[in-house]
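User: C-alpha cells in, sequence out, please.
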C-alpha cells in the first residue's frame, strides 16, 4: 500500500513543513542483531527518519528478529499482532504505518510471514537490509508485501552510510558473518549464509570513525568470529589476531573484545594475542555446547570434550586471569542422564565466569530436528534448572574473588540511582559506583566492595 513520505504540519507563522518520519525498531537476539539495527537506523536517518520508542508514533515499525530458538520466533508473531492493531488504529486517523520484519526469522520464513501476518508490508533478510531505502521507495510506488531474502552479490557494508555519532563509549563492529560449521542444531548457515570476512582496511576505517566519535571499546562480532580471514592490503588474508593487532594501533581505542568463537578456530596466534596485546580484554566467550563426545558428534561440533579441556589449558597458560564464558545446550536429542552429568562435570571443572544455557529447541530445516529420540520437555526443564544452579554458583565464586581488588572500569552510562554510573570490568562484569556523569567514557580504577549474582559494586579510587 502506498504511503506518504511525511506528514504535514501547519505552524503559527502559517508555513506548512514536513514532520520527520519516525521509525520504531525492536531488536531480538544476539549482539550482531544489535549492530544490524544500528546500521538500519543509520541508513534510515539518511532518508529523514528519526527513532521513536513508541510504536504508536511510528510511520515505520521494524522487528529485527532472531531464529535461534522457537520462542524467539513465536514472539515475533505476537508482536506483529500488536503492530497490526496499531496500524489499524493509525489508519483510522489517516496515518500510514509500514510494518517490516528483518533479521533471521525474515530470512528463514520469507513469504510465510506475510501469509501468517498480512499486515506486514516488507520482509528483508540480514544480507539485504542495506536496501531498505530502495524497498521503501518501491512501497511508496504502490508495490505490496515485498519479500527480499536473496543473498546479493554486492557488499552490504560498502552500501551503508558512514557511522553516526556514537551513543555510548562502547560499540559493536561486525567483522565476519555466516558459518561453514553446520552444527546440526543451528540455523545460522541457512539464515546468514556461508562465512564472509570484511576486508581489514574497511574495518580499520570504520573503527577509526567510531573512535573519532568517542568510542573507547570495540566488540568484534561474527557468528564464527575467530574464523575471520579478511583480505589485507597486501592481498593475503589476515587472521582475527592480525586484525586485532591492526585495530590496537588506533589511538584512543582502549579496549577490544570479540565474540562468538568456535573451539576449532582458536588458533595459536589468537591465544598469543591474549598474552601479548594489552588492549585485548581478558575475557573469552567460547561455547562448548555439551560435554558428551557422543552428543558432540551428533551436534557435528568437530571437537571432543578433551579437545576443549586442552584448549582451555593452553589459553589459561597464556593468560592466567582470563574470564571464560560459554554456551550450553541441554536436552539435545538422545541426551542421556549420563551425557548430561558429563556436562555438569565439565562446568564444575572449568569454572566459568559466565554461561548462557538453553533447552534444546528444534528448528525447522536443521538435521537435529529429525533426530530421535527427542528429550521430553519436563526432562529438559529439570536439567536446565540443575545446570543454571551450577553456573550461578560459578558466577558467585568468580565475582566474589574480586571483592577487595581494584580494577579498571570503563563507565558507559548513568545508573538507576542518582549519582551512580555503570560500566564494565575487563572481565565483562557490570560494575556500579558513585561517580559524576563527566566520568562516562573514562576508564577509572574502582575498588570492589561487594559482589552480586550478576554485577559488582565499588568505590572509585580517584577523587570525585
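Assistant: Sequence out:
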Amino acid at each position: 500500500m502506498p504511503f506518504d513520505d511525511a506528514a504535514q504540519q501547519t505552524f503559527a507563522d502559517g508555513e506548512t513543513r514536513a514532520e520527520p518520519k519516525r521509525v520504531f525498531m525492536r531488536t531480538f537476539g544476539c549482539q550482531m542483531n544489535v549492530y544490524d539495527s544500528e546500521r538500519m537506523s543509520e541508513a534510515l536517518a539518511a532518508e529523514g527518519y528519526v527513532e521513536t520508542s513508541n510504536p504508536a508514533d511510528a510511520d515505520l515499525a521494524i522487528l529485527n528478529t532472531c531464529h535461534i530458538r522457537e520462542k524467539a520466533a513465536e514472539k515475533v508473531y505476537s508482536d506483529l499482532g500488536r503492530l497490526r492493531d496499531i496500524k489499524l488504529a493509525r489508519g483510522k486517523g489517516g496515518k500510514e504505518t509500514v510494518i517490516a520484519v528483518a533479521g533471521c526469522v525474515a530470512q528463514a520464513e520469507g513469504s510465510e510471514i506475510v501469509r501468517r501476518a498480512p499486515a506486514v508490508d516488507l520482509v528483508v533478510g540480514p544480507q539485504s537490509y542495506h536496501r531498505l531505502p530502495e524497498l521503501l521507495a518501491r512501497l511508496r510506488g504502490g508495490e505490496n508485501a515485498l519479500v527480499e531474502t536473496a543473498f546479493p552479490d554486492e557488499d552490504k557494508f560498502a552500501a551503508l552510510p558512514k557511522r553516526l555519532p556514537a551513543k555510548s563509549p562502547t560499540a559493536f563492529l561486525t567483522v565476519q558473518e555466516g558459518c561453514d560449521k553446520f552444527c546440526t542444531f543451528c540455523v545460522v548457515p541457512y539464515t546468514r549464509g556461508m562465512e564472509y570476512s570484511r576486508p581489514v582496511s574497511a574495518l580499520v576505517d570504520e573503527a577509526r570513525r567510531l573512535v573519532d566519535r568517542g568510542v573507547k571499546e570495540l566488540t568484534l562480532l561474527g557468528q564464527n568470529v575467530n574464523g575471520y580471514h579478511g583480505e589485507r592490503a597486501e592481498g593475503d588474508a589476515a587472521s582475527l589476531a592480525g586484525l586485532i593487532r591492526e585495530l590496537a594501533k588506533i589511538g584512543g581505542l582502549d579496549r577490544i573484545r570479540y565474540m562468538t568463537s568456535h573451539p576449532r578456530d582458536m588458533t595459536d596466534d589468537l591465544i598469543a594475542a591474549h598474552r601479548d596485546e594489552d588492549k585485548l580484554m581478558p575475557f573469552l566467550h567460547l561455547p562448548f555446547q555439551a560435554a558428551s563426545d557422543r552428543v558432540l558428534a551428533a551436534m557435528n561440533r568437530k571437537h571432543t570434550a578433551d579437545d576443549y579441556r586442552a584448549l582451555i589449558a593452553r589459553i589459561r597458560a597464556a593468560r592466567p586471569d582470563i574470564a571464560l564464558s560459554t554456551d550450553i545446550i541441554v536436552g539435545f536429542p538422545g541426551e542421556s542422564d549420563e551425557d548430561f552429568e558429563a556436562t555438569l562435570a565439565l562446568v564444575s571443572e572449568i569454572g566459568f565466569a559466565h554461561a548462557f544455557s538453553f533447552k534444546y529447541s528444534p528448528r525447522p530445516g536443521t538435521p537435529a530436528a529429525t533426530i530421535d529420540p527427542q528429550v521430553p520437555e519436563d526432562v529438559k526443564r529439570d536439567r536446565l534448572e540443575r545446570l543454571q544452579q551450577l553456573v550461578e554458583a560459578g558466577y558467585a565464586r568468580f565475582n566474589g574473588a574480586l571483592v577487595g581488588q581494584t580494577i579498571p572500569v570503563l563507565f558507559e552510562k548513568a545508573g538507576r540511582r542518582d549519582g551512580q554510573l555503570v560500566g564494565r570490568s575487563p572481565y565483562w562484569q557490570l560494575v556500579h559506583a558513585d561517580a559524576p556523569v563527566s566520568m562516562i567514557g573514562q576508564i577509572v580504577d574502582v575498588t570492589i566492595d561487594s559482589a552480586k549474582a550478576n554485577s559488582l559494586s565499588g568505590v572509585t579510587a580517584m577523587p570525585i
